[in-house]
Amino acid sequence: MITSASLLKEGIEFTFADSCRGLVPFADISEVRELENVVSIELPNPYELILHTKLGEAIALPWDFARHYCDTSYRPRVEAIAVAGQQAIGHRIRQLRESAGLTQEVLAHAAGIGRVTLVRLENGEQSPRYETLVSLARALERPIQELLARPIVAST
Q: What does the DSSP 8-state code read for residue 75?
């Protein structure tokens, strides 16, 4: 949660509830690029900052955009979580395909996607679009929730 933000010559300094502080350079905000283009900032809630420009634009900067400038471990942690989720979904798709007795070729064709795409999904190398998940769920004759649920592992 953002607790405060200040305009500085180089950018916007953010402070978070855990006292983490960092500077988002104006150069990284394409709509602004420099302090002279900023009229004001406001913090309407702890999750976003609104930047008002000389052109009359209101640009929202979400907390997670600013957070990775403040905490060098934030982005790698979030990316690791995303990769783990991607791999879990891929594992689940493979598990459901195999339990249905389908080949990758047959499932890919039934879902209207390429076999290479299915291979990448099953190997956790690619995140599926929502439409792809819906197509796979239909082809597997399963509710989409089953593709997203964590696999049940039997304990021994």
A: H
Q: What is the CA radius of gyration of the chain?
A: 22
Query: Could you give the residue ranges of the DSSP H alpha helices within the chain?
Result: 63-70, 74-99, 104-111, 115-122, 130-140, 144-148
Cα 124 from Cα 88, distance rounded (Å): 7
Walking along the chain (156 residues) 10 residues at a time, the average pLDDT comes out as 92 91 88 87 93 91 87 74 88 95 96 94 91 95 86 50
Best CA proximity match to 64, nearest among 85, 78, 82, 83: 78
Residues 32, 67: Cα–Cα separation, whole Å:
19
Q: Which of 82, 118, 117 is nearest to 97 (CA)?
A: 118
Q: Are 101 and 155 in contact (CB under 8 A)?
A: no
Instruction: Say which DSSP state 36 is in.
Output: G
**Nearest-angstrom CA–CA distance, 58 and 61:** 10
pTM: 0.54
